[in-house]
Design goal:
By secondary structure, the protein is mainly α. Helices cover 45% and strands 8% of the residues. Strands 1-2 form a two-stranded antiparallel ribbon. A two-stranded antiparallel sheet has the order 3-4. The protein has a two-stranded antiparallel sheet with strand order 5-6. Helix 2 packs across helix 3, helix 7 (198-211) packs across helix 8 and helix 7 crosses helix 10.
């Protein structure tokens, strides 16, 4: 009887040991062992079979066993999503299958600064190698609305799949601005009495955006322009002249703005035209929009650079000229 019990114990222990070794074997070969020697980018093409993907992975040296990859795929639900994947050095076959199953595709972060024109944004996207395709739309492209204007796009930091088309990216920016407008409409369409509609809001916000990079100053700058509109004064905003003389590029590329430029005939030149320009001169962020919808309560009518990245504000022309003289001294001393 004791011998039988001893034999059963030995058998149980042997089975347990074998099972433990098997689990250890499976854990190592599926979850630890890796043939990925360097960080790699791998694309799962649309419609590709598991066998074809496995063969590619083996050809690229990312796995060493096609059957084990197929088992790993089945273990992760048998699903593989298309896209480009960043496979880090040392990634196991199980982790690769898991990435494919969950769609853990490679992403890139693209920062679009506030205050750029559509032309500048398109060039920025063309200079971003992780995006693909053209920025000019046509029939059957990723941008349903081909006629983009300044003010239609929402500058922000975007995280998108590597290889996203530039037109799809532009459409993403357009939709975000559309969503911003929709929120404004749903919350009562409130705006300063000097403005008539959303176009006026974004147009004035674009001027504010170009005048100051400081979010804390934007409501004050907005109040200056709204006060001038209230009094029937011209806005006399330099960025509108820049927009006019650069044909909508919005960048003087280091060239100075001269007194003669202020007389250029253009519907955007607020030195010769009253009211807000007919359309925005740049694409704006939320701070600039909020500054127009919720401007500071001031009596300021003028402002000039203070030499420290900000501005000096004044209520009278005489005070403004004093501030202007101080700014010239600071500028000439540099």
């Amino acid at each position: 009887m004791k011998k039988r019990k001893l034999s059963k114990n030995i058998i149980f222990k042997s089975v347990g040991l074998f099972a433990g070794l098997l689990l250890l074997f499976l854990f190592y070969f599926f979850g630890v062992k890796s043939t990925v020697k360097n960080d790699s980018l791998f694309e799962v093409a649309k419609g590709a079979s598991v066998s074809a993907i496995a063969s590619q992975l083996q050809d690229y040296g990312l796995i060493d066993s096609i059957p084990m990859f197929k088992i790993a795929v089945r273990g992760n639900g048998g699903k593989i999503q298309t896209g480009k994947y960043e496979i880090p050095e040392g990634t196991s076959v199980w982790r690769i299958a898991r990435m494919f199953a969950t769609g853990d595709i490679a992403t890139v972060t693209v920062v679009v600064p506030e205050g750029l024109t559509v032309k500048q944004i398109k060039q920025l996207l063309l200079d971003t190698p992780t995006l693909t395709g053209s920025v000019e739309c046509g029939k059957g492209t990723d941008l349903p609305v081909c006629d983009l204007h300044d003010g239609d796009l929402f500058p922000d930091t975007y995280k998108v799949a590597r290889g996203t088309s530039r037109l799809a990216f532009l459409d993403l920016m357009r939709k975000k601005m559309d969503d911003t407008k929709a929120v404004w409409e749903k919350t009562g369409r409130m705006m300063p009495k000097q403005l008539k509609n959303w176009n006026d809001i974004i147009t004035l916000a674009s001027i504010v955006q170009k005048e100051t990079p400081k979010a804390s100053e934007m409501p004050i700058v907005a109040s200056v322009y709204l006060n001038r509109l209230e009094k029937g004064m011209r806005l006399q905003a330099d960025p509108t002249v820049v927009y006019a003389i650069t044909n909508g590029v919005g960048d003087m590329q280091g060239a100075p703005l001269l007194r003669g430029h202020l007389k250029v005939e253009s519907p955007y030149n607020t030195y010769v035209r009253y009211g807000v320009p007919p359309a925005p001169i740049a694409n704006v962020g939320m701070d600039a929009i909020k500054s127009v919808l919720q401007p500071a309560d001031t009596n300021y009518l003028f402002f000039v650079a203070d030499g420290n990245g900000g501005h000096k504000f004044s209520k009278s022309y005489e005070e403004h000229m004093k501030n202007h003289a101080n700014w010239r001294k600071i500028k000439n001393s540099k």
